Amino acid sequence: MKNTFWLLAAFLVISVNLSAQGIAGKWKTIDDETGKPKSHILLYESNNMLFGKVETLLSDASTSKCDKCSGERKNQPIVGMIIVENMELKDGYYQSGKILDPKKGKWYNCKMWLKEGDSNTLVVRGAVGPFYRTQYWQRIQ
After folding, report:
1. Rounded Cα gap, residues 2 and 72, in angstroms
2. Angle at 139 between CA 135 and CA 141, to 5 degrees
3. Cα–Cα distance, 47 to 63 (Å, whole number)
4. Residue 124 forms part of a structural domain
5. In which band, very low, low, confident or very high, does the pLDDT at 91 lie, cut at 50, 70 and 90?
6. Which of 82, 86, 115, 128 is a Cys-bridge partner for 121, taking CB atoms 3.0 to 4.6 Å apart?
C-alpha cells in the first residue's frame, strides 16, 4: 500500500510539473525532412485544452498560404492559422488532438511531450493509423 501511494504521488508530481512547466509558449518548428527551421508556433491553453497557431513563417517555409487545405482554411494565410487543436494532458503527455500540416493540407492525430531531460525540446508526433512522423521543436526563450 505504501509503495502504491509513493508511485501515485510521483506520477502526480510528474504530471503537475509537465503542466506547470508546460509546453505553452513559443516554439520554433524544425522540418523533419530538411532539418531547417520553418516557423514559430504559439501553443496556448483554452478550456483545459492546448491549441497552437502559426505566428511567424521563417525563410525556409515553402509556402505562405494553405493552398492544399480544404474548407475554411483553403488558400488562407498560414500566419495566424490554428494548426494544433484540442490537445488534452493525459498520462503525462498531450494527446487526443490533431495537428495540420499546411504544406500538405492534411490533419493528423497528434501527441506532444517534452523530451526527457530537455524542457526546451518538444517532441511532436503526427500519425495516421500506425504510421507516424516525429518532429522536435525548440522552445523560443
Report:
1. 54
2. 165
3. 31
4. yes
5. very high
6. 115
Q: Is the dihedral of CA 104, 39, 132, 48 positive or negative?
A: negative
Q: Is the pTM of this model over 0.85?
A: no
Any domain includes 71 = yes
Specify the residue for cell string 505553452: 24
Report which of residues 56 and 2 the model is more confident about.
56
Contacts of 131 by beta carbon, 8 Å cutoff, 6+ apart: none
Domain of 107, CATH number, reads 2.40.128.520
Strands 118-128 and 131-139: what pairing?
antiparallel
Q: What is the mean pLDDT of residues 97-119?
A: 96
pLDDT per residue over 45-88, tens digit each? 999 999 999 999 997 667 789 999 999 999 999 999 999 999 99
Give CA separation, 7 vs 10, 12, 41, 70, 95, in Å.
5, 9, 35, 46, 23
The residue type found at 25 is G
* pLDDT at res. 141: 73
User: Which residue has cell 501515485?
Assistant: 8
How many domains are there within the chain?
A: 1
C-alpha cell at 51: 491549441
User: Cβ-count burial of 129 within 10 angstroms (0-12 exposed, 13-18 middle, 19+ buried)?
Assistant: exposed
